[in-house]
Amino acid sequence: MKPASDASGFTLLELIISLGLFALIAVAGLALLDSVMGVQSRTEGRLDRLAALQRTMFVIQSDLDQITRGDVAGGGSDIGFVRVAAGLGGLSVPVRYAAAGGALVRSAPQPQPLLDGVTAARWRFLDGAAWVDRWPPDDARKAQWPRAVEVELQIAGDRGPQGRLRRVVVLPVQPKDE
Fold this sequence. Notes:
The strands form 2 sheets. A 6-stranded antiparallel β-sheet has the order 5-4-3-2-1-8, with helices on one face. It is 30% helix and 34% strand. By secondary structure, the chain is of the alpha+beta class.
């Protein structure tokens, strides 16, 4: 029988050290993966919120672009007007926006929450060269439209952008009554 050689394999200590190093590398990899997944989740939440903000501004812009014969009335946190209904042969549909219960609600004619997390909404109207808080500014101008409408939304930022969001929409030329 020959004596065993010293270089014939790994010792138990070498195996334990290599397994420990492999375990440390695996834990670091899992921590990195968890961090990346957390960032992705937060980013998706913010992107969803941004998409909701863009969708809300698009709906407001579209409604105001389609305004038709009728009165525009509003001030403070709400506005009401009449727009042409898409695809219904030019039928008129009353539209109203109001901030209620922490959301911006569009009623046309059924209430539809457009955007959650709205702490305040403010509508202003361009009267000639000056912005006014109420429309019509007096009863004599009830049948007239403002030149533009400004909406300013105060947005709570629990899962995305926060702050004030402002949009100015220039109204089309008001048709003359025949």
